[in-house]
Write a structure and sequence with these properties.
The protein is built from seven helices and no strands. It is mostly helical. It has one domain.
Length: about 130
C-alpha cells in the first residue's frame, strides 16, 4: 500500500511458499493491513492541505467520495475483498470521504483477510 508499484501478489505467493499457507497468509495480512492503514491515516491527516483539496475538487474524485458517503461501507468492503483492485486509489478516496477511522479499519481488516486468503490459496497451487 505504501509503494503501489511493488507486485503485492508476488510477495504474498513468496511468503506462502517460504512459510507455509497459514503463516504466510497471516504475515502478508498483517503487513498489508498495517501499510494500507498507515497510508489511510497519513492521507486523512493531510486532507486539508492544498494538494489534497486540489485532488478532492476533481469531479471524478467527488463522485467517488459521494458514492462512498451515500452507499456506506458495503461497496468499499466488496472492492477491498478483490485481490486485484487498486488498493492505493481506494485508500486515498476513502481517506477523503467522511468514513470514521474505526469503521474503515474494521472493513480493511476483514476484507484484506479474505483477499489475502484468496491470493494465498491461488498462490499455493503454483
Amino acid at each position: 500500500a505504501i509503494v503501489p508499484v511493488l507486485p503485492l501478489t508476488l510477495y504474498v505467493v513468496l511468503l506462502i511458499h517460504a512459510y507455509g499457507l497459514f503463516p504466510g497468509i497471516i504475515i502478508s495480512w498483517l503487513g498489508i493491513v498495517s501499510g494500507t492503514f498507515t497510508v489511510f491515516l497519513i492521507c486523512k491527516k493531510f486532507v486539508n492541505t492544498i494538494r489534497m483539496k486540489k485532488l478532492k475538487s476533481r469531479k471524478s474524485v467527488q463522485r467517488l467520495i459521494s458514492f462512498i458517503d451515500r452507499q456506506g461501507l458495503i461497496p468499499l468492503f466488496v472492492l477491498l475483498c478483490f485481490p486485484f483492485t487498486p488498493n492505493t486509489l481506494i485508500n486515498i478516496i476513502a481517506s477523503l470521504s467522511h468514513i470514521k477511522i474505526k469503521y474503515y479499519f474494521f472493513v480493511l481488516v476483514i476484507s484484506k483477510l479474505i483477499s489475502i486468503t484468496i491470493l494465498g490459496v491461488m498462490g499455493k497451487e503454483i
